[in-house]
């Protein structure tokens, strides 16, 4: 079996931008600053030694937080930017679609815009002629192509722009954050197209924040963090790493928590420690330890929830009063539970200590709360429907274990 050829090769690419730190309109001041070694700008290093390869037929995902350098990398691959170091080699005709509607003229008709945009993408008039009917059919705008673009609704413009990009017959298609375009019906149509493209063996590079899309479409992916490659390879692993990295976000302190923090003197040193792994399969158990010190004779108990980070709803909670303690001293308890019906879900563990009047007397720092990522590892790579999340409120099925 012959090995697929490399169509995009990124080798040790670095890129920085010069950001001015001061402005001067005086030649004398500029010369003095130059002799003093004052550049008048600072270097913002966006990419730092990025390397990977995209093989022919790959559906390759590029993920990372805002500001990580993804779009800059795409512009270097598309030859819009030139890297300070390293090189990018592209074998074949590249169709780059970085922003919806770039190059469209509202004073021209839809038909004229298709030809103009095709020319900007590097296609001849004859090549656009061959693609024109497919573009119009996919956009479903056959009755409007002789109208000026300014008379189109925003949704019609999006459909036309997106259709030009994905129906252009290039060797490599680059898409930047453009999967969620158009109405629901058009999105379904786009989904069908991407599934067909994935099976056809055409090369696609996709930048997205949608980890579901990465798992659904991509066969390879790379995670960029602070201008460096953090993870490269299996799309499920890369998407899971990205989701886990972004699961812990600062959470505002509510008024009742502020009050508990300011007024409570009976509980101190509340700590929450995850004993099981951060990433588990549904058949594995979640286990964590909660410990704290009671400073007086207040009776206390623990209440906690495992909250879906994306939807901000409780998935599992226990405030059953099974662990009620009396008297001062150090308290420690381990809780164990399982959640076998969940998949592809990020849960944040939120813990509070309450007294026998159900008043919160302490709460764990939510910004640093443990995060549990539950992902099935027994799904075939081509079984897309099984990869969808299965989430809902769960029946409590855990137990407390007292520690000394």
Automatic annotation (TrEMBL):
The gene is tagH. GO terms for molecular function: ABC-type transporter activity; ATP binding; ATP hydrolysis activity. GO terms for cellular component: membrane. Keywords: ATP-binding, Hydrolase, Nucleotide-binding, Transport. SMART domains: AAA. Residues 27-251 form the ABC transporter domain. The keyword Transport applies. It is an enzyme of class 3 (hydrolase). Its EC number is 3.6.3.40. Belongs to the ABC transporter superfamily. It comes from the Bacteria. InterPro entries: AAA+_ATPase, ABC_transporter-like_ATP-bd, ABC_transporter-like_CS, ABC_transpr_TagH-like, Bact_Polysacc_Export_ATP-bd, P-loop_NTPase. The keyword Nucleotide-binding applies. This is Putative polysaccharide ABC transporter.
